[in-house]
UniProtKB/TrEMBL annotation:
<dbReference type="InterPro" id="IPR002022">
    <property type="entry name" value="Pec_lyase"/>
</dbReference>
<comment type="similarity">
    <text>Belongs to the polysaccharide lyase 1 family.</text>
</comment>
<comment type="pathway">
    <text>Glycan metabolism; pectin degradation; 2-dehydro-3-deoxy-D-gluconate from pectin: step 2/5.</text>
</comment>
<dbReference type="InterPro" id="IPR007524">
    <property type="entry name" value="Pec_lyase_N"/>
</dbReference>
<dbReference type="InterPro" id="IPR045032">
    <property type="entry name" value="PEL"/>
</dbReference>
<keyword id="KW-0456">Lyase</keyword>
<keyword id="KW-0964">Secreted</keyword>
<dbReference type="Pfam" id="PF00544">
    <property type="entry name" value="Pectate_lyase_4"/>
</dbReference>
<keyword id="KW-0106">Calcium</keyword>
<feature type="signal peptide">
    <location>
        <begin position="1"/>
        <end position="22"/>
    </location>
</feature>
<dbReference type="InterPro" id="IPR012334">
    <property type="entry name" value="Pectin_lyas_fold"/>
</dbReference>
<dbReference type="GO" id="GO:0046872">
    <property type="term" value="F:metal ion binding"/>
</dbReference>
<keyword id="KW-0479">Metal-binding</keyword>
<dbReference type="InterPro" id="IPR011050">
    <property type="entry name" value="Pectin_lyase_fold/virulence"/>
</dbReference>
<dbReference type="GO" id="GO:0045490">
    <property type="term" value="P:pectin catabolic process"/>
</dbReference>
<protein>
    <recommendedName>
        <fullName>Pectate lyase</fullName>
        <ecNumber>4.2.2.2</ecNumber>
    </recommendedName>
</protein>
<keyword id="KW-0134">Cell wall</keyword>
């Protein structure tokens, strides 16, 4: 009898949580609809994506995260010297000299001919998404129209046409434009969406979907005020279109995909998650981006039952989590999450959390807690007991705590890391973070000048 009650109770919880917490992806109903909506084509895509996602998984993520940190510490040391030389000029250099402040940016931003060498960007990614080359091996495609009228046969020149092609493409924009996506934009593999040099706003419509794809770069665009799309017939590749159920209202939804790099994107106010990565998605880096005005910012893993998310490996690097954000930066399940040198200037409930034994290595971030006494804790463990979570490895290394912020650690101390012996930053990591993430969000790049 007790068992029966437990089951009933749990069932109620499962049913109720989605409405309490809000993300559509955590709703069982969503998954039932989703499963029934896959035709044979998508089932095949799912099977091959699953293989790719497993291949992208790194057996020893600890040695790898050490490599990323090495690169950052090298840069910080050289930066410090430079800043001593020219501190007074800092901030005014935009038009005269390169002010790239972190290793990803430094790799391309100082080139005044960045516009002629757009594909150089693909060599710059760090972290778990480091093998992402996007459309580097393909031709350029110039988007000339901001329209999005035909979901099944998108008009050449539109963004939807570009992202549904089979061949690898490096997609850029002829002019500044505001695009309202009628329905979710289903991006095919081997694509770069490069908004540099113009202002590209994706607003007031549906968001991006990366479903069972591999190798996508999204760079330098603004994604604001995203809503659900009603669904219907939508093209997802040159060779296929099909019926889609209502999209969930995410800014960027990464679904069963690998090798994804999101860099210098500005995002605010999406109806569901801002960036969600689910269903075994892995080999992802989200860097240099700026987030504001949102409740549930990032969901990595949608359900405790999706054990496929154990392959999930995601790096968050040099991002600025800014004003009016509430929670989930990110909220993790099962996988391995390296949260490095991000600036958290505000949250209302918590910053980093999760359930189901995720590994979270939080390193050199600056966490500024809100004034609310009840929200000083950075971390949140959902629906679990201390007996269970005490073994989850959640470590805070050289994070800077501001305004009473505190991180509750658990699990083993990090020891098996190659970076430890030549670790060079020990004093003021917080002040470095401000510098490292100073240019988070979409940049204003001008042709013929360092960006
Ligand atoms: C980390 O760097 C070392 C030395 O540069 C290299 O041998 C090793 O393969 C790297 N590890 C990963 C996971 O990339
Ligand atoms: C670190 O940076 C160097 C060059 O600056 C690069 O060759 C190497 O691949 C980077 N390591 C990692 C792990 O990204
Ligand atoms: C791109 O080209 C390089 C070199 O030819 C190749 O090794 C790589 O697999 C290609 N990658 C993609 C995604 O096209
Ligand atoms: C993407 O590019 C790689 C390397 O060129 C290729 O093997 C793969 O089939 C491409 N993916 C798709 C879906 O076209």
């Amino acid at each position: 009898m007790t068992k029966l009650y437990t089951i009933l109770f749990l069932t109620c919880l499962v049913v109720n949580i989605p409405t309490l917490y809000g993300n559509v992806l955590e709703d069982e109903e969503f998954w039932e609809k989703q499963a029934n909506s896959f035709d044979d084509y998508w089932k095949k895509r799912e099977a091959s994506a699953e293989q790719e996602n497993k291949k992208a998984y790194i057996d020893d993520p600890f040695s790898f995260t050490g490599n990323v940190t090495d690169n950052i510490t090298d840069l910080i040391v050289s930066d410090e010297k430079e800043e001593k030389k020219g501190r007074k000029l800092a901030g005014k250099l935009a038009n005269s000299a390169c002010v790239a402040t972190n290793p990803i940016d430094r790799c391309w931003r100082c080139d005044k001919d960045w516009e002629k060498n757009r594909k150089k960007l693909a060599d710059c990614v760090l972290g778990f998404g480091r093998n992402t080359v996007g459309g580097k091996n393909g031709s350029f495609y110039k988007v000339t129209s901001n329209l999005d009228n035909d979901m099944v046969n998108p008009v050449p020149g539109t963004l939807r046409y570009a992202v549904t092609r089979t061949a690898p493409l490096w997609i850029y924009f002829s002019r500044s434009m505001t695009i309202r996506l009628n329905q979710e934009l289903i991006v095919a593999s081997n694509k770069t969406i490069d908004g540099r040099g113009v202002d590209v706003y994706i607003v007031n419509g549906a968001g991006f979907t990366l479903q069972f794809v591999k190798n996508v770069i999204i760079h330098g665009i603004k994604i604001f005020d995203i809503q659900t799309g009603n669904g219907g017939l939508i093209r997802d590749s040159e060779t296929h279109y099909g019926h889609r159920t209502q999209s969930d209202g995410d800014g960027i939804s990464i679904f069963g995909s690998s090798h994804v790099w999101i860099d210098h994107v500005s995002m605010r106010n999406c109806q569901d998650g801002m960036i969600d990565a689910i269903m075994g998605s892995t080999a992802i880096t989200i860097s240099n981006s700026h987030f504001t005005d949102h409740n549930e910012v990032m969901l990595f893993g949608a359900s405790d039952s999706h054990t496929v998310d154990k392959v999930m490996q995601i790096t968050l690097l040099f991002n600025h989590f800014g004003k009016r954000l509430v929670q989930r930066m990110p909220r993790c399940r099962h996988g391995f999450f390296h949260v490095v040198n991000n600036d958290y200037t505000n949250w209302e409930m918590y910053a980093v959390g999760g359930s189901k034994h995720p590994t979270i290595i939080s390193e050199g971030n600056r966490f500024r807690a809100p004034d609310d006494h009840n929200a000083k804790e950075i971390t949140k463990r959902t629906l679990t007991t201390q007996e269970e979570w005490k073994n989850w490895q959640w470590r805070s290394i050289r994070d800077e705590m501001v305004n009473g912020a505190y991180f509750i650690e658990s699990g083993p101390v990090l020891t098996n890391r190659p970076f430890a012996k030549n670790d060079m930053v020990s004093s003021k990591p917080g002040s470095y973070v401000v510098r490292l993430s100073r240019y988070a969000g979409a940049l204003k790049c001008v042709k013929g000048k360092p960006c």
